[in-house]
Design a protein that fits this description.
By secondary structure, this protein is α/β, with parallel strands linked by helices. The chain is 29% helix and 14% strand. The chain contains ten helices and twelve strands. The chain has a five-stranded parallel beta sheet with strand order 1-5-4-2-3.
């Protein structure tokens, strides 16, 4: 018997058996950093899971800021996803290329922030789907526009001013999903103009440590990964990363373990590391 998996993660077998269901909406939320040398839009056009809608995290975002893919106002979000034919009552399955990289951010946006009840991440992603020879299509799905009714929970999103206070007071645990090298300032940041290092008091919890070959770890493995990083699961956590995307992988792990006292710092290092007025430390601790 396999160890228990997250209730927010679905298998390729399950998804393939549900293809064509009227209440199912599949979202291709693939997103890549330049160093990954992958084109999400081109990959979608060349072949996606049947019925999948392309969800661009930079388009359905807050465009009043220069920061990338920030959480949009609920009215804008609802209007845009409604145009795509997605309602809050649908079963929504989100995937990306590698498996557990960008998809948890969209899971978090729909489920935790905007209040959709039935939102899931596809284990193994599109890469796993293709490797197993499962069906693909190149035609664009056409769904009739619907009304998406958001149940917006602004409290789950940490703004900059509040993050400043959290760091200054050391009041909450901070889990940083960037690589150990970026955290310790031994690797450069992928975005220009950013200082290296991490927020004082933050713990390094690299996003890549939550999956093996694109498959999300079991619940006992997730617990071990988090606790080994020095995070106390009995206390609140703020998640952060480079630009607010992979922080949601930690959030997904926390929620999977029943830890609901977590929030995500949306500006993440794109904001913190580019400002001259923030405190930064280097090294592993």
């Amino acid at each position: 018997m396999t160890a228990e998996k997250s209730r927010f993660v679905v298998s390729a077998d399950w998804l393939q058996s549900e293809l064509g269901a009227k209440d199912l909406r599949i979202l291709d939320a693939s997103f890549y950093l330049p160093a990954q040398k992958r084109d999400a839009d081109a990959e979608y056009a060349s072949g996606h899971i049947p019925g999948a809608i392309r969800f661009d995290q930079d388009k359905i975002a807050d465009h009043s800021t220069d920061l990338p893919h920030m959480v949009p106002l609920p009215e804008f979000f609802a209007a845009e996803v409604g145009k795509l034919g997605i309602s809050e009552s649908d079963r929504i399955v989100v995937y990306d290329g590698p498996g557990v990289f960008a998809s948890p951010r969209v899971w978090w946006l729909f489920h935790v922030v905007m209040g959709a009840a039935n939102v899931f991440v596809l284990d193994g992603g599109l890469d796993g789907w293709k490797a197993e020879g499962r069906p693909l299509e190149t035609t664009l799905p056409a769904y009739a526009p619907v009304t998406f009714k958001p149940n917006f929970n602004a409290a789950r999103v940490v703004p900059f001013d509040e993050m400043l206070g959290i760091v200054d007071k050391g009041s909450l645990q901070i889990a940083d999903a960037r690589s150990a090298g970026r955290f310790a300032a031994t690797e450069p940041e992928p975005r220009e103009g950013m200082r290296s290092g991490h927020m004082p008091g933050a713990k390094s919890l690299p996003s890549g440590s939550f999956a093996v070959n694109g498959k999300f770890k079991s619940l006992p493995e997730l617990r071990e990964t988090i606790e080994k990083a020095g995070i106390d699961l009995e206390k609140p956590v703020v998640t952060t990363c480079g630009s607010g995307i992979t922080a949601a992988i930690i959030t997904l792990a926390l929620e999977s373990l029943g830890h609901g006292a977590n929030r995500l710092y949306d500006g993440s290092w794109s904001e913190w590391g580019s400002r001259p007025d923030t405190r930064i430390v280097t090294g592993k601790d």
